[in-house]
Amino acid sequence: MDQNSLKKAVGLAAVEFIQPDTIVGIGTGSTINYFINSLSSIKFKIKGVVSSSEQSTNKLRNFGIKIINLNELKFLPLYIDSADEIDPQMCMIKGGGAALTSEKIIASVAEKFICIVDVSKKVNILGKFPVPIEVIGIARGFVTRELEKIGGIVKYRRGIITDHGNIILDIYNLSISNPILLEQHINSIPGVVTVGIFASRKADILLVSDHNGINTIIK
Ligand code: 5RP
Fold first, then answer.
1. Known binder of ligand: residue 5?
2. Which residues pair with 213 in a beta bridge?
């Protein structure tokens, strides 16, 4: 099976975790696009979804799936999203699709976070994939210099403006031995909106597709 087939398989498997009459938070990216395709087959069984990006919203609307504003909810039972990397503690790097800020907000509200990945995303230590950071434009130079102080090699993702009107920096060469501390440190730099390390809010359940099928790992 190629990677797209594995993404499709795990997207299909995630639908089994959705209860009737519920509201589901939805991530962003190619794995989630497969999940949305599968979700469309049970769209009349759910109340609606909270979307993490314009990209996912457009796809959901095309399927006629009801979009609910997060601010209308006091409780969200479930968030389903993929990741760029996930470690054995269920900490993740996310933001390859530049939707990390809304993803982190919805994941933080949700009672349960199910991460769905193909096996290539599983790592022992985070950091081979560059850490995306959403940054206020005027802070680009300052944030870059602050990240260089901790050994980061910073690349500006040219031509990308997030749904919130900000820029993305991708940080290479970070040593991520303690994801929670690094998340806190990068978050504290003025001008950083969101760092794509998801360690304070990890996944609760991981579905991994490989050539043998789907593995379910519960924290
Ligand atoms: C988007 C994300 C995605 O979950 C991550 O980039 C994985 O994407 P894909 O499913 O396309 O491999 O964090 O901001």
1. no
2. 210
CATH 3.30.470.20 fits 131-195, yes or no: no
Domain spans, the chain: 3-123+200-218, 131-195
Q: Which of 5, 7, 26, 32 is the pocket-test mutation for ligand 1 (most atoms within 8 Å of CB)?
A: 32
> Catalytic annotation on 85?
no
CA distance 111 to 101: 18
Exactly one of 103, 134, 146, 183 is catalytic; which is it?
A: 103
Kindly report, residue by residue over 140-171, the tens digit of the pLDDT. Answer: 999 999 999 999 999 999 999 999 999 999 99
pLDDT tens per residue, range 104-120 = 999 999 999 999 999 99
> Is 121 known to sit in a ligand binding site?
yes
What CATH class does 3-123+200-218 carry?
Answer: alpha beta
CA of 122 to the centre of ligand 1 (A): 13
The residue nearest atom 1 of ligand 1, judged by CA position, is: 97
Q: Indicate the pTM of the whole model.
A: 0.97
